[in-house]
Design a protein that fits this description.
423 residues, alpha/beta, Rossmann fold, N-(1-d-carboxylethyl)-l-norvaline Dehydrogenase, domain 2, 3 domains, 15 helices, UDP-Glc/GDP-Man_DH_C_sf, UDP_ManNAc/GlcNAc_DH, oxidoreductase activity, acting on the CH-OH group of donors, NAD or NADP as acceptor, NAD binding
């Protein structure tokens, strides 16, 4: 089976490599010439465990090539970005999906399958993609099989979860669903769940929306705890001992191309009905501002001005900065006069500094915004170069804080206000 994947990013590339690892002939297409050249030279352009080794293996087997242009294939997979629109509800911008399908259509032949893996708003497969294929003279479900198969993987474990997670196969017709099962049955060892395309679309969005809403509940609890002088982290720890309660962990905001983006796709389609989803998005979107306010209070308490930001990626142990709250917080702090900001992230090359010692030199606050493993135990030799040994860990990830004189989290942040009021 020859599979052509359009889009070689955080999902498209691992998907292409996984098919190639399972003996399929795979062509990866991307409009970025640098990405294509890197892959053909045996180098991945994104950070994901085991992906580099997997690329080397499929290149040795000659099962994968990267190029700029589409060519004939048996299966066409669309895995391109779907950013938010610049409109009131931040709906789904289908520009890249539509362009990808336009590029595929001239190469379609009877019997081909078109799979949309990109996260899309409900009814896109049936209302947007299907008419484009039919306009070319094909009958979907007879000549061409059209399926929406959303991914549901965790960055850092993508190659494992592509294989072992359950996979939704959303066909436009039963025959389309059957074809989708055959294709993903090549490597998926989890359950292949049959669904209509529109159901698959909304299911993917709700998976991420559920997590966004739950995190918003935790983040709102942080703000309540700060007002009432109650440790929100301790509240969550105790509440989660109830057998039917699972409050997520709070943080400086929500990032990535899923949780911070997907809920808006639902809102845009049903704004009057999606009230809770909109409220959750508002809470999480405001968390960077809340964190900035707490940082300023800590600075004032300690009469400081230099902040060392540890982490720019939106989550730990990856290099992905898409929609990262850490970037938003850094930018907000940089815009304020009288404050010096330095950044360090061992996974992100855009950071200001290259080492913990450099970023912490003569600093007043170490502000952890990403839960990288490298930040769980900050070495004493790095901390001792700080001007004031103050830690604000917004991810609650530090397991040893003996080197610090003060350690704030989103649970005990009210201690800053209480100290100010006592003065």
């Amino acid at each position: 089976m020859k599979i052509l994947t359009v889009g070689l990013g955080y999902i498209g590339l691992p998907t292409a490599i996984t098919f190639a690892l399972h003996g399929q002939e795979v062509v990866g297409v991307d409009k970025n010439q640098h990405v294509v050249e890197m892959l053909n030279n045996g180098k991945v352009h994104i950070e994901e465990p085991l992906l580099q080794e997997a690329l080397q293996e499929v290149r040795k087997q000659q099962n994968l090539k990267a190029q700029l242009n589409v060519e004939p294939a048996d299966v066409f997979i669309v895995a391109v970005p779907t950013p938010n629109c610049e409109d009131e509800y931040k709906g789904c911008d289908l520009t890249y999906v539509v362009d990808a399908v336009k590029n595929i259509v001239p190469y379609l032949q009877a019997g081909n399958t078109v799979i949309i893996e990109s996260t899309i708003s409900p009814r896109t497969t049936e209302d947007v993609v299907k008419p484009m294929i039919e306009k070319a003279g094909f009958e979907v479900g007879e000549d061409i099989f059209l399926v929406h198969c959303p991914e549901r993987v965790l960055p850092g474990k993508v190659l494992y979860e592509l294989v072992f997670n359950n996979r939704i196969i959303g066909g436009v017709t039963p025959a389309c669903t059957k074809k989708g099962r055959e294709i993903y049955g090549v490597f998926v060892q989890g359950e292949l769940i049959e669904a209509k395309a529109s159901t698959a679309e909304l299911s993917k969005l709700m998976e991420n929306t559920y997590r966004d809403v739950n995190i918003a509940l935790a983040n709102e609890l942080v703000q309540i705890g700060a007002k009432l002088d109650i440790d929100a982290l301790e509240v969550i720890r105790m509440a989660n001992q109830h057998p039917r309660v699972n409050i997520h962990q709070p943080g400086p905001g929500v990032g990535g191309h899923c949780l911070a983006v997907d809920p808006y796709f639902i809102v845009a389609k049903a704004p009057e009905e999606a009230q809770l989803i909109q409220r959750a998005r508002k809470v999480n979107s405001q968390m960077p501002h809340f964190v900035v306010e707490q940082v300023l209070d800590i600075l004032e308490k300690h009469d400081g001005k230099t902040i060392s930001i540890l982490g720019l990626a939106y989550k730990g142990n990856i290099d992905d900065m898409r929609e990262s709250p850490a970037v938003s917080i850094a930018n907000q702090l940089r815009s304020m006069s009288g404050i010096e900001i330095r950044t360090y992230d061992p996974h992100v090359k855009e950071a200001d500094t290259d080492s913990l010692e450099e970023v912490l030199q003569d600093s007043d606050i170490a502000l952890i915004l990403t839960d990288h493993d490298e930040f769980k135990e900050l070495p004493e030799n790095a901390v001792k170069v700080m001007k004031q040994r103050v830690l604000f860990d917004t991810r609650n990830c530090v397991v040893s804080d003996a080197s610090f004189e003060e350690h704030y989290t989103l649970g005990n942040i009210s201690a800053v206000k209480n100290a100010e009021q006592a003065l």
